[in-house]
């Protein structure tokens, strides 16, 4: 593998925003998308970072993604709302929905917001981190389902029917880092199967099945019609199903007749509705410190809080720059140059 | 194993209510606990059914459980509340909290309710079923944590620190059965390790570790200071942690100084806040039917919706009676006789 380039996060974010502005996105929305993508790189989740720029540009060109789509609240009650993302950037729709949910939580104690006509919302943990930084508990869930949808079989099934249908939760804290949980409901991400395939390596048992539903450890089987398995069997399947039923059910305008549905649901809870914020955050601090103090198992250095690896990556990459593979960089910087946007300088 | 006794569910419920009334529980609360326990038996979850009667009687005798503890709302906003269960039956506290959450959801669109000073709340799926039958989406979570708490190690840890910290979700439907998800965040329930130990059988790898955190398949190791592992590693750990942080954080009156916390959180969402109920339930029906139509994997008869096995068990046991092991029956019927309560007749 060629050595990675290093780019400082601020110029990378400015370049990313510039690219989307040049492609027709209003400045405030472009800034939101750029902030989200570079924040995913900073957190160490490069699969949800600037590597997505070319695909988004292509979706704008094909008309699938409305570069200037601005989310609006189309229906609301004291503690709920429906946001229509108007086929715009998912990061913009979800960031808006989160602030609507936080507004509801501020006034009513809790807020549940669904999002219609929304592009790819990126890394779910981003919203949980944002809510925690504002002092709110959050839950973010995205689900899609239907015959041939995604790469995942339902528990006991032998057909692709579910997306990776991730869940994320954020809990604000005082002095310890906020707890941010963010996971796909499959055993492994498809990206890891790709990596094993490229290396001609075997997978661990229990991660995939072949096209007929037989257990397999051969990554090729996934790409020959095979399926990812839900994490922890019926448990991950249950979470995946609830994600897509809520996503589809709370955004439905018409009843589907083909078993296909998808959507996003964002929830916020104000700890202040349950007592003093300081009591809540100090309780989280004490309990979190207790978990971190648990003696590690053989092979582990220490017990980590969910969100800990991301916080460590953020500190390191802010200081040292974001690593980007040369071929990815060529595509992104090429797109910037073509659109007349200043290319961020390389640190290395 | 001796043949199981069979008892019709209605007389079993009457006998159970009679026992708790005789032990000092007001009639309405005793009826709630009895309904919950027998409903767990009907659903096929005998570990959360009438087998618990002797332990509850013992807790009443020792003063740990207040037989007449009646839950009250001690604080509320438009979409949230805190219920104090007054050290009464958890089933009573949680049933009350669920109705408070449903009331909030009816008026504000969503409701989040935490429960303080609450006994064992039994089978979480019971509340999700109840909410779904009333037309509400629900989430129920219980968590406890702290040094030496429960049998579960945090991911990467080698000490007992977490309970089984279960999650449950319910989604109402129209003509298909409601989807009810209910699972512990450990790979296996402790009861299954007990069964393997009694049979001198090996466990599957990945379910437990020994007292030093080394992988083990010997059930004896769990009882020699070993630990259950979280389901799907860091994913189950994340859910377990969020369960206990929310449970403790949203019920805290004082900040703990020892890393110990616990509590229950119940949430309800009114689908009507997002559109016509018929659109929601027909969408769920269509998506659920689509999942059930997926071709089964080898070794499976069909793809089941979560909650399906419980519905099948309920139909069968209502018709044929609830099976109860003779030694369990001896203890329960003995307690009834001692308290002057009529013993339900055996069907077999």
CATH superfamily of one domain in chain A: Malate/L-lactate/L-sulpholactate dehydrogenase, NADPH binding domain
Q: What is the strand content of chain A?
A: 15-25%
Q: How far is the N terminus from the C terminus of chain A? A: 16 Å
Strand order of the largest sheet of chain A: 2-3-4-11-5-6-7
CATH topology of one domain in chain A: Ribosomal Protein S8, Chain: A, domain 1
Query: Based on DSSP secondary structure assignment, what is the total number of beta strands of chain A?
Result: 12
Oligomer classification:
homodimer
How many DSSP helices of chain A? 11
SS class of chain A: alpha+beta
| Largest beta-sheet details of chain A | 7 strands, mixed
Name the biggest interface: A-B, 94 and 94 residues
Tell me the series of helices and strands of chain A, N- to C-terminal.
EHHHEEHEHEEEHEEHEHEHHEH
- The percent range for helix content of chain A is 40-55%
CATH architecture field of one domain in chain A: 2-Layer Sandwich
**Could you name the CATH class of one domain in chain A?**
Alpha Beta
Shape of chain A: globular
Low-pLDDT segments, ≥5 res of chain A? none
Rg calculated over all Cα atoms of chain A: 21 Å
Average pLDDT number of chain A:
96
């Amino acid at each position: 593998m060629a050595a990675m380039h290093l780019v400082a996060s601020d110029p990378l974010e400015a370049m990313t925003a510039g690219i989307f502005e040049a492609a027709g996105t209003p400045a405030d929305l472009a800034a939101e998308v750029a902030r989200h993508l570079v924040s995913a790189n900073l957190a160490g989740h490069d699969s949800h970072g600037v590597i997505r720029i070319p695909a988004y540009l292509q979706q704008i060109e094909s008309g699938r993604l409305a570069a200037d789509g601005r989310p609006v609240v189309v229906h609301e009650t004291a503690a709920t709302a429906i946001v229509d993302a108007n086929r715009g950037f998912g990061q913009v729709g979800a960031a808006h929905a989160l602030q609507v949910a936080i507004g509801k939580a501020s006034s009513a104690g809790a807020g549940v917001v669904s999002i219609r006509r929304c592009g790819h919302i990126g890394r779910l943990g981003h919203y949980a981190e944002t809510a925690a930084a504002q002092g709110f508990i959050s839950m973010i869930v995205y689900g899609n389902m239907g015959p041939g949808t995604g790469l995942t079989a339902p528990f006991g099934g032998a057909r692709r029917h579910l997306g990776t249908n991730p869940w994320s939760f954020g809990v604000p804290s005082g002095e310890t880092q906020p707890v941010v949980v963010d996971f796909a409901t499959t055993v492994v991400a498809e990206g890891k199967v790709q990596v094993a395939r490229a290396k001609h390596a075997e997978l661990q048992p229990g991660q995939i099945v072949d096209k007929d539903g037989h257990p397999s450890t051969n990554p090729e089987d996934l790409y020959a019609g095979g399926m990812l398995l839900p994490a922890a069997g019926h448990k991950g399947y249950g979470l995946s199903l609830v994600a897509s039923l809520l996503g589809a059910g709370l955004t439905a305008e018409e009843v589907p007749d083909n078993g296909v549905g998808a959507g996003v649901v964002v929830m916020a809870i104000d700890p202040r509705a349950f007592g003093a914020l300081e009591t809540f955050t100090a309780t989280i601090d004490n309990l979190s410190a207790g978990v971190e103090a648990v003696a590690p198992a053989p092979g582990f250095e220490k017990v980590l809080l969910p969100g800990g690896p991301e916080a460590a990556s953020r500190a390191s990459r802010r200081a040292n720059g974001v690593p980007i593979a040369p071929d990815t960089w060529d595509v992104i910087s090429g797109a910037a140059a073509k659109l007349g946007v200043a290319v961020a300088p390389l640190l290395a």
